[in-house]
Design brief:
Number of strands: 27
Radius of gyration: 23 Å
Strand content: 35-45%
Distance between the termini: 45 Å
Helix content: 10-25%
Strand order of the largest sheet: 26-3-4-5-27
Shape: globular
């Protein structure tokens, strides 16, 4: 209330708009921006502007916890680093076998009767297709453009262990291709190989030796081998794709004593030369160590300009590497999984770039668990 010229009048609340509104929205957690997105066209524009310039979204980290019992019950939790918030995702899909991941954002379920897969950020849309002709127990599976490539992992006694099949999502058909290189015969399984895709090519690298081949889907040909071991002391490496750039993360030292963890960008050339991006601080290297198994292997998930690095036998701690300065440096931190699990579960990790558009139609399937938790 206010008095103007001796008359009492009601004050109208001043509307929030423009730069002030954008500043306010930049402090709101991403999942809670959904109601503001639907207020008006002006508010929708302000939401987009605040996310674009003031506090952009960062890649979400997903933990898919699956029971080891025959029911394969799975619960999915996500961490939004922009909001420092843990979120549970509810879905109705029933898994029929062991859940696996590839290409950071590709989640799949392969059984003798069908292949089910999802590659949307929240893993709420699933595709179900006939199983490949060759039954495999531990193949590499990757999405390359509009195709799903399944290679290796077949049984020696009945099928070619290096067999390659491709599912074309546009034509909805399987086709067979040239088999994997013979040199990979003893390691043609996801246990021993790291895979990623970029520019219509599938890269396949032996984790221990760094020996790498790539498969061109257009020509159905394999090329290589290439040596992806920039340091002779690298004893274990994995590859991924970060904004269409090939990234290599390696353990240096021995399985009993990891001295360093380094990240390189693999530059496209005749020899695929490696340029070092950064080295993990030693205190974070120690966090990757399991008291039982040490640090004999690592996995990575990538999205945006962020690389999540973790020990597959101990997913409680994730090391976060944010690539900065155009790829000439790194900002390092760590994230602890506070949701926790139990001994009767396995954890599959994926990473996805989640935007406001992904949440507007799916927010009812998400539930905030912990708000304001710092990594």
């Amino acid at each position: 209330m206010a008095r103007i010229l001796g008359v009492t009048v009601e004050e109208e609340e001043a509307p929030i708009h423009g730069d002030v509104l954008e500043q306010v929205l930049s402090h709101v957690p991403l999942i809670n921006l959904v109601p503001a997105f639907h207020v008006s066209k002006a508010w929708r524009t302000a939401v987009y502007s605040s996310l674009h310039s003031l506090n952009p979204p960062k890649p979400w980290l997903f933990f898919h916890r699956q029971t080891t019992r025959s029911s394969h019950d799975t619960v999915t939790f996500a961490y939004d680093p922009r909001s420092c918030m843990w979120i549970q995702i509810f879905h109705s899909f029933k898994y029929v076998s062991t859940l696996k991941s590839s290409n950071s954002n590709f989640l799949y379920d392969l059984s003798p009767s069908k292949l089910s897969f999802s590659f949307d950020p929240l893993k709420l849309t699933w595709y179900h297709v006939d199983a490949p002709l060759v039954w495999r127990f531990d193949p590499i599976v990757a999405k390359v453009g509009d195709s799903i490539v399944i290679a290796g992992g077949a049984c020696d006694f009945e099928d070619d262990p290096l067999a390659v099949e491709i599912y074309d999502m546009k034509n909805r058909k399987w086709r067979t291709c040239n088999s994997m290189p013979v040199i990979l015969r003893d390691s043609a399984a996801s246990t021993w190989l790291s895979v990623t895709s970029t520019s219509g090519k599938l890269f396949v690298m032996e984790k221990r030796s760094g020996t790498t081949y790539f498969f061109n889907l257009e020509s159905d040909n394999w090329s290589g081998p290439h040596d992806f071991r920039p340091d002779e002391s690298c004893f274990y490496s994995v590859i991924g794709c970060l904004n269409d750039r090939l990234i290599l993360v390696s353990l240096i030292g021995t399985p009993e004593e990891v001295k360093k963890v380094k990240i390189w960008e693999v530059e496209y050339s005749d020899n695929f030369s490696c340029k070092e991006i950064g080295e993990m601080p030693i205190e974070l290297v120690r966090k990757l160590r399991s008291e039982t198994f040490g640090t004999c292997s690592i996995n990575i998930c990538l999205g945006g300009n962020v690389v999540y690095i973790y020990n597959p036998v101990m997913t409680e701690v994730m090391v976060v590497c944010e690539v900065v300065n155009g790829g000439n440096g790194c900002h390092w931190s760590s994230l602890r999984d506070v949701i926790g699990g139990c001994g009767m579960e396995t954890t599959v990790v994926t990473c996805g770039e989640v935007g406001i558009d992904d949440l507007t139609n799916q927010s009812y399937k998400l539930s905030v668990l912990i708000n304001g938790l710092q990594p």
